[in-house]
Amino acid sequence: MRVFVTGGAGFIGSHTVLALLRARYEVHVFDSFANSSPRALRRVRELTGAPIGMTEGDVLDQKALNAAIAAFRPDAVIHFAGLKAVGESEEKPLDYFTVNVQGTVNLLRAMDRSGCKTIVFSSSATVYGEPVYLPFDEAHQIAPMNPYGRTKAFAEGVIGDWCRATEGASGLLLRYFNPVGADESGRIGEDPAGRPNNLMPFIAQVAVGRRQALRVFGGDYPTRDGTGERDYIHVSDLARAHLAALEYSVDSTGCEAVNVGTGQGVTVMELIRAFEAATGREIPHRIVERRPGDLASYYSSTERAKSLLNWEARFGIDDMCATTWKWQSENPNGYRDG
Ligand code: WQD
């Protein structure tokens, strides 16, 4: 199967490309490298010895998308390319709607021109918003609380309408919880530009000495220890979920949303302790005020991923911490080390 991967040089994209190549798929990556490095793909090639087709391009460039897809003639597309910082989306909502929604429309148009009818979409649990109940299942109301989450919900709607209008189309909307960790090789991993917004990369940068201490946003939430609780999912498990979605799409049509998480909640303090135990590194931290917009707790129902995709997470929080540390300690400056 030939798979076209937008954003394939990114954190989740590169891990998914690695899994695709190891499973003998043929891959072409389309990436602007605006928030990723071609070095990630070079390392994926080194790990697999397999070729990766690559086009440097922007999903807002319809002509470039049309040409790249027409040339590769994919059987399926995995769509990662997009903007993904919640805080930034509050400051630049129009950029987020343009890239995340119009970019998805452009991609579907290019797919139509080449007769490709299968898309696996990088969505997010952020579409659920404030929990009406937990664990979140796929029937939970869609009520995103920030522009980033709204762009993911809108893009899901675009794909759903495209599926209904396109004979034989298949759309899988994978709602990620909190992706963390790195491939066991330590050769690829999360490499945020600038100050990390997310918890795990910040902890990793404290551990490697790039940051002084971690600020824990809030110690008065209604959770086991007062700190925020999330469902962290190992990026290699997440990558494998994309392959399960592709395998499912071969014999299916229509549009399906599927949560991708472990079903387990872990608090900030629990993650800090797990990281310290897994790495032997101390993580200096102090509890400060809550971060605006944060939820106290959410985690996923994993039933649909099991029943529909025959997929479930295998890695636990210790693996997530140990692989994060291997990546960060062997690449203190991420891909900037070459
Ligand atoms: C996790 C917990 C923070 C940083 C976001 C997006 C989501 C997805 C993942 C794209 C919270 C606490 C964090 C820090 C802290 N991204 N924290 N100190 O906010 O759950 O999810 O990233 O798809 O869509 O919403 O992830 O890692 O930022 O926060 O205490 O320096 O860690 O308060 O409880 P979040 P996060």
Strand order in the largest sheet: 3-2-1-4-5-6-11
Biggest sheet: strands, sense, closure? 7 strands, parallel
Task: Give the CATH topology of the domain at 2-179 and 232-263.
Answer: Rossmann fold
- Helical fraction equals 40-55%
Radius of gyration: 19 Å
Helical stretch count? 11
Bound molecules: UDP-4-deoxy-4-formamido-beta-L-arabinopyranose
Report what the structure shows:
Its EC number is 5.1.3.2. Keywords: Carbohydrate metabolism, Galactose metabolism, Isomerase, NAD. Its cofactor is NAD(+). Helices cover 41% and strands 17% of the residues. The chain has a seven-stranded parallel β-sheet with strand order 3-2-1-4-5-6-11, with helices on both faces. It has a two-stranded parallel sheet with strand order 7-10. A two-stranded parallel ribbon has the order 8-13. The protein is globular and about 55 Å long. It starts with a strand and ends in an 8-residue tail after the last helix. The chain has eleven helices and 13 strands. It has helices at residues 11-22, 38-48, 62-72, 86-91, 93-114, 147-165, 199-207, 235-250, 268-279, 303-309, 317-330; strands at residues 2-6, 26-31, 53-56, 76-79, 118-124, 170-176, 178-180, 214-217, 229-230, 232-234, 254-260, 266-267, 285-288. The protein is α/β, with parallel strands linked by helices and 338 residues long. Helix 3 (62-72) packs parallel to helix 5. The chain has a domain at 2-179 and 232-263: NAD(P)-binding Rossmann-like Domain (Rossmann fold, 3-Layer(aba) Sandwich), CATH 3.40.50. Strand 5 (118-124), helix 6 (147-165) and strand 6 form a beta-alpha-beta unit. Residues 84, 86, 124, 126, 176, 178, 197-199, 202, 214-217, 228, 230, 268, 291, 294 line the site of UDP-4-deoxy-4-formamido-beta-L-arabinopyranose.
